Amino acid sequence: MLFIKEYDREMNHRTLSQGPDVFHQALSCVLLGEKRFHVKNDHGDDYDLMYIENQSWAESSPEYPDSPLFHQDPLYPPYFRYDEYAKERLCFDIFEGYDSVWFEEIGEYTVVLTGVLLRFSDKRILWKDERIKWFYPDEDRIEIISDDPGPGTKNVLRVIKAFHNSAFVCDYDNMDPVVLFHHVFVYQWLTDLDMDKVKYAEILVARSEGIGSILTLYARTRNFLERFGITVTLQPGSSRYSDHIITNYFNVRMTPEDSNSTNTIYITNYYGLLFTKMLRYSTGRDFDADSLNPRFLTELKEYGDAVLADKRMLGILLRGSDYIVSGMSGASAPVTVESALPKIREWMKEGQYDGIFLATEDKDILDKMVKEFPGKLRIVSQERYSIADFSKEGVTTISALDRVRHPDEEDYNAFLEDSTVNYFYALYMLSRCESFMYSGQCGGIVMTKSLSEKGFKRMYCFAQNKEVE
């Protein structure tokens, strides 16, 4: 992003003229290695433009998550090229439900987004920074107000100047310029093709991702892009799961032979899509029973009928292990058994449940829960991990630990198929429980909710410390 800075008269930089394309001129020079520019301004003080890469700017904030998982591939693309006049290639979803947009400080993205709203919407445009008039001197729709409307102001989208971890705390009423810009220009990040020319969207997933994340992303990407009639596919051989596992147990389409660069979007860094509001709150059919192979679903139902019968169970999903090691925070924060126990006991007493069905990949959590609820706990046999396992092997993810434990490829694939099947048995059993409690946001929670045919009488999220709808 290009930031507006005070004119530095002690330094010589390329001089640009103020105008509608000043940012595009500067970005073309950024590609040549330049980082700072003088701008001659006919509508106010001369100023400098300084380029800072979006991801670097985000990571420099103390609000950016510490987890190493979010310091690998960039979440926020650089956007060296974009077209703010191509209405059909802009995404307006993020503005739905707001009457007004308030901008705190001038910069490349806030100036460009103001122009987008002026051209293509009738929303009120509120500004704290009077310098916006440098760019739109004759525009009466821009209202200069000295006061910040404040977080939570009804129907106002606040665009603050500092990085705000909207994606991690799921707060999309208050956004920073980089995140908002990405939401609006996401189609142009996905492809240079016209969206109506696209036939497929191929997802290339990280090999560290679990099957829950893969299936959730697949479903949500499909929901987001179905407005264009695009078929979402998975690149064969791209995940740590063999194509046999994915196609044998799930209804996921692999990329067909007629896919090519003239008709396909290639989503090679899906984190940039995953952390948008459109994916977090995708509308339409999410992962559900139809996402499973019918034969596999029949097996799950038969097992559930045999084990649960007419028992009234409290389902609990507690993520630990790599969620603790990698420092997951915000809506995805893990929870200790000790902090969860008071609420679990309260619900057990109020609901008079026959027992608890616990789903967890963490051996330490399982051991503590068995001790606290002797004779009340039901589980599915599956691979489990202790925190010490990660430090011993010097890894931070379950996928890396599994690779260390199963170095032989044939053994690894057999193990992965077995653990994947058991994982879905656990999620299905959770979906059959009367009420549901969970630590924090993860793919397993999304799938549990989606698999539940009747829904849950009550749900509680420990990361949010509240009962949820």
Describe the structure.
There is one protein chain. The protein has 469 residues and is α/β, with parallel strands linked by helices. Helices cover 35% and strands 15% of the residues. It contains 18 helices and 18 strands. It has helices at residues 22-30, 54-59, 108-120, 166-169, 177-184, 186-190, 211-225, 243-249, 271-274, 277-280, 294-308, 322-325, 337-351, 363-372, 387-393, 398-405, 409-431, 443-451, and strands at 2-6, 14-17, 36-40, 47-51, 100-103, 124-127, 142-144, 156-159, 174-175, 200-203, 231-234, 264-267, 313-317, 355-359, 377-378, 435-438, 459-461, 466-468. It has a 6-stranded mixed beta sheet, with helices on both faces. Strands 7-6-5-8-9 form a 5-stranded parallel beta sheet. α17 (409-431) crosses α18 (443-451). The radius of gyration is 25 Å and the shape is elongated. The two termini are 38 Å apart.
Output the keywords.
5-stranded parallel beta sheet, 18 helices, alpha/beta, 6-stranded mixed beta sheet, single chain, 469 residues
Number of helices: 18
Q: Strand sequence of the main sheet, in spatial order?
A: 15-14-13-16-17-18
Overall, the morphology is elongated
What amount of the residues lies in strands?
5-15%
**Overall average pLDDT:** 90
The low-confidence runs, each spanning 5 or more residues with pLDDT under 50, are none
Q: End-to-end distance, in Å? A: 38 Å
Radius of gyration: 25 Å
Helix content: 25-40%
Could you tell me the number of beta strands? 18
Structural classification? alpha/beta
Task: Sketch the major β-sheet.
Answer: 6 strands, mixed
